Amino acid sequence: MRAGEYQGATAESIRHHYDVSNDFFALWLDADLTYTCALWDETDSGDTLEAAQKRKLDHLIEGARAAGARRVLDVGCGWGSLLDRLVNTHGVQRAVGLTLSESQAERLRRTALPRTEVRVENWLDHEPDEPYDAIISIGAFEHFARTGLSRAERVAAYQEFFDRCRTWLPKGGRIALQTNVKGNNVRMDKQTVRDLMFIIDTIFPESEIPALSEVIESSEKRFDIVNLRTDPDHYSRTCQEWLNRLQANRDQAVKAAGEENVANYERYLGSTVGHFTNRHLGLSRMILEAV
């Protein structure tokens, strides 16, 4: 598969979402702008979003055996919370982040994290000078196959990703992957269907959430899955926290992104709480080891 045959969401569709406004996202994400499902302490009702997001990053870093590594790749680096955690907490010597969002990259360049390199680049175009010790990808896999592909086409697109990762890792090297997956509850009322279509059409155009079985199938003969956990309730709680913060800062959010964007995100976050609670959507965190 050549770059021209990429089957995932285009850079334009990614920017449609992530380039809304850095100031807008800063009003309702945690202080590090981690825009993916947190890992909550379910025994602590007072757990904070900030603590839960750092716990998630540490879980994936430790699973990938990235702590203290010489080189780590972050596919879909967002605004850099994982890159920051890698170099400033876990002693990684060099961290490379890939994003398709100019806004995210610009903010990261201003932050000037030590021992990091940020590229506005598709993973399909990435050609590292030397292998990585570990790869981590959080909340990017959902964009690797666009809406309308058949299952076989989606699996082929995901296989290409795992093939690339396998060439970038030594045998025994690990990927830590977190992704939304299709839920197992396919009984939906009309409002649920409308809300899901709204998210596909308005919030994340061109992106297709994978089935967990597609992720597993596409990694076969390339990686062993050594750890897998599913946490839909963690994403429901994360989205509720984001929605609460957005509504608490609504006036500022409207100034940053406009009334229409704010209303769209309120609908998106509010309905997504229910999608995860009702298992129309799932959330998987997995550790894969190169064979």
**Helix proportion of residues, in percent?**
40-55%
What is the alpha-carbon Rg in Å? 18 Å
Number of strands: 7
Mean pLDDT: 93
Strand content: 15-25%
| Number of helices, where a helix is a run of at least 4 consecutive DSSP H or I residues | 11
Q: Between the first and last Cα atoms, what is the distance in angstroms?
A: 22 Å
Major sheet description: 7 strands, mixed
Helix/strand structural class: alpha/beta
Q: Which word captures the global form?
A: globular
- Following the backbone from N to C, one meets helices and strands in this order, namely HHHEHEHEEHEHHEHHHE
Give the neighbour order of strands across the main sheet.
3-2-1-4-5-7-6
Notes on the protein architecture:
45% of the residues lie in helices and 16% in strands. The radius of gyration is 18 Å and the shape is globular. It starts with 10 loop residues before the first helix and ends with a strand. Strands 3-2-1-4-5-7-6 form a 7-stranded mixed beta sheet, sandwiched between helices. The model has no long low-confidence stretch (mean pLDDT 93). By secondary structure, the chain is α/β, with parallel strands linked by helices.
